[in-house]
Design a protein that fits this description.
The structure holds two protein chains of two kinds. Chain A is mainly α. Chain A is built from four helices and no strands. Chain B has a single domain (11-248), classed as NAD(P)-binding Rossmann-like Domain (Rossmann fold). A seven-stranded parallel β-sheet of chain B has the order 3-2-1-4-5-6-7, with helices on both faces. In chain B, helix 1 (20-31) runs parallel beside helix 2 and helix 3 (71-85) packs parallel to helix 4. Chain B is globular. The chains are: A mainly alpha, B alpha/beta.
């Protein structure tokens, strides 16, 4: 991972840890990798994925990520890739 | 509900609130402590008058133009209201249109207008509320149906269908959003005299006498008799009620 990507990844992980704890399914940061699938690997349900995306929008000060793109998000890497494309 | 420094003021958005039942709902929510977005499509003067009445009683409200047939308009209107007030606690999807005609004379235009406003519009309004409510950790969505959706009225095939449709919509949303603390219910008014030119919610004027004879309480209802129920469903006392249809019809349908 490039250093810029690593920094984005670290911030995304922080959001995931916070939001998963809030939704009653705490997860430790060391379990999260770029390949982690939110639903299959991290145990999020689809509404929690929406909350995670909202948390990412807040963390990075983004406008709402379009529905068509949210639908494509499966893994942590998908989020990092989206943010990298946005120039973060 | 008295706003304090600890609790953010509760906010509510009502579509179709420039007159009739929607206006009564906006007024009542404001009286019960909500900051209210008074949604209107063409009735700007009416919406402003509602806001002035609310202000005169010491409440806070703002007119917000919203066309529920336009997805972008709904999204933008709710976003603007949330930006102005800091959040959204209650959404009342009230905007509706009715064109009475026998099915054989009902054209495609009338069909599309009623489906777009009454059914798709309710969906869009509820959808726009979900993310702001998730940010608040919960909320209340109330969709205004009609006894027409439960009984079916002659001359109102499409209207009845749209009003039945929102019941399915509310039940699905209730299940989908319960884990996030968002409660979704339906209020189905019966024969309500809105006093603004003979629009009797759910019943064509020519059927009024026949309909009144079916009402246990023997009279048409007032908008204020609907708005209190809606405000209850939006308020802090309603915590264990979701996916339900509350019929406010004076005992017309039991």
């Amino acid at each position: 991972m490039e250093s810029g990507e690593q920094e984005i990844f670290d911030r995304v992980v922080k959001v995931i840890v916070t939001k998963m704890a809030e939704s009653g399914k705490p997860i430790s940061a060391d379990r999260i990798t770029m390949d982690s699938d939110f639903i299959k690997d991290l145990g999020a349900d689809s509404l929690t994925v929406v909350e995670l995306v909202m948390g990412v929008e807040d963390e990075f000060g983004l406008d709402e990520i379009p529905e068509s793109e949210v639908e494509q998000i499966r893994t942590v890497g998908d989020v990092v890739a989206h943010l990298s494309r946005q120039g973060n | 509900m008295t706003p304090s420094n600890d609790t953010p003021t509760k906010t509510a958005f009502v579509t179709g609130a420039s007159r009739g039942i929607g206006a009564a709902i906006a007024m009542r929510l404001a009286r019960d402590g909500f900051v209210v977005g008074v949604g209107y499509r063409s009735g700007e003067d009416g919406a402003k008058a509602v806001c002035e009445s609310i202000a005169a009683e010491g409440g806070r409200a703002m007119p917000v133009r919203v066309d529920v047939t336009d997805p972008e308009s709904v999204k933008d209107a709710v976003a603007a209201f949330v930006k102005e007030t800091g959040g959204l606690d209650a959404m009342v999807a009230n905007a509706g249109v009715v064109e009475n005609n026998m099915a054989v004379f009902t054209g495609e235009e009338a069909l599309a207008a009623m489906v777009e406003t009454n059914l798709s519009g309710a969906f869009r309004s509820a959808k726009a509320a979900i993310k702001p409510m998730m940010r608040r950790g919960g909320g209340r969505i109330v969709i205004i149906s009609s006894v027409a959706g439960l009984m079916g009225n002659p001359g109102q095939a499409v209207y009845s269908a749209t009003k039945a449709g929102v019941i399915g919509l509310a039940k699905a949303l209730a299940r989908e959003l319960a884990p996030k603390g968002i409660l979704v219910n339906v209020v189905a008014p019966g024969l309500i005299d809105t006093g603004d030119g003979g629009m009797i919610e759910g019943i064509p004027p020519e059927h009024r006498a026949a309909a009144e004879s079916l009402i246990a309480l023997g009279r048409a209802g007032k908008p204020e008799e609907v708005s209190g129920v809606v405000s209850f469903l939006c308020g802090a006392d309603s915590t264990y009620l979701t996916g339900q249809v509350v019929t406010v019809d004076g005992g017309m349908r039991m």
